Amino acid sequence: MKEAEIDPLSDHVAVVTGAARGIGEAIALRLASLGARVVLTARDQSRLQKVKQAIEDQAGSTLVIPCDLTDANAVAELGRHVHAECGRCDILVNNAGISVARKPLVDLPVEEWDQMMQTNLRAPYLMIRALAPLMIAARSGHIINISSLAGKNVLPEGAAYSASKWGLNGLTYSVAEELRQHNVRVSVIAPGSVNTSFSSSGKDPRRMIQPEDVAQVVAMLVTQAPTSFVSEVLLRPTMKP
Ligand SMILES: NC(=O)c1ccc[n+]([C@@H]2O[C@H](COP(=O)([O-])OP(=O)(O)OC[C@H]3O[C@@H](n4cnc5c(N)ncnc54)[C@H](OP(=O)(O)O)[C@@H]3O)[C@@H](O)[C@H]2O)c1
Domain 3-235 classified CATH 3.40.50.150? Predict the structure, then answer.
């Protein structure tokens, strides 16, 4: 069997935001298992080191770059670090995101609105700005944004979260059209409730989407034949909670 069939992402560099836990951790582990060198980023350095260890225990390759994605200068520095250390970026997964406790929009403090938009919408823009130039220069790359079904539907008492994800979908569709001429593919995954510590939904965790299910979709997207790409995946649990 050829190496590309065993490790389809060998020689690839994948940057995963929010890789410290939850969906990002599962995506990082999956991409590493396919042969990619995975750049892990989030704020929690000790959690990042645990994910790095888990990948290296499976003979995978990682680089940890802690970063607060709400800090534009720090994101630009992250981009320079990836450039200097790896010289390329084949895959960018904009996964990091936050929600806040559900409340009517009129009761939502401005600071919470700003934090939500900075993390869920501005950070993917900053990451694309920092890393897409490497992809454009290479005439190859794949950007995957992790949105939510809340970005396709209404979410009463979650308007800011919903708006941030509707915005992320719009950003994705638009930048996809900008970058396809450079042979760079841009996709969005919109999952329903996923079994992580992200939200205390009270749902039966066994009937929720698992983080590994989202990682499986990322793996499918980045191993798609190069002549086409999937714009959008809506991911739902098989069984209703
Ligand atoms: N879980 C769900 O039900 C669900 C459903 C649909 C979509 N999603 C989306 O999936 C993505 C991941 O969710 P999850 O369930 O895995 O959440 P999670 O377990 O809370 O993980 C979120 C990740 O984002 C990172 N992060 C948050 N703020 C950050 C910042 N300012 N700078 C850098 N990193 C930051 C966190 O690391 P640090 O705290 O260490 O920085 C963590 O690694 C989010 O975009 C979320 O909106 C989740």
Answer: no
